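call fold(seq) -> tokens
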Amino acid sequence: MSEERPAPDTSDEAGEERATDADAWATACAEDLAAEKARRRAEHGPTPGSAAEELRKFVDTVADKLSGLQSPLLGAVAGPAAQQVVRQVVQQAKAAVEPVIERNPEVFDHLAAAGTELLAAYRSAVQAQERRWTTGAADLKDDWPDRPDRGEGTGPGERIDLD
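ret:
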């Protein structure tokens, strides 16, 4: 008795069944992704907004802090007048920054991404230099084969080469 596989069903019902399976898979993936996002949000807090939103929050926070400061240097008499001047300056700064944020929110996203890249490059350079400092001068020749071994240790006074 030989085992034969049944011929694949090419009817519309099979096509509908396959589409339903694909939809079920997509739905299950979406549910899993939503659950993972909720878990991470609960664990790490809400995700930060765009760079423009974060700048807006920063400006509001600084404005609130500056407006609430009491200046002991100006004394009790000049205090209320100084506070009024600070409030005016803060309001003017907010009025100047807000239109820029509104017109160019994507610029702040690009600046944030560029800052992240610069930080990563700096961190990489510092880590490489720290590794050379901790492993000794013998490893310097391995990092730069075209440079001769100077025969001296790397000390805190040595210049950091970022090439």
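The mean pLDDT is 75.
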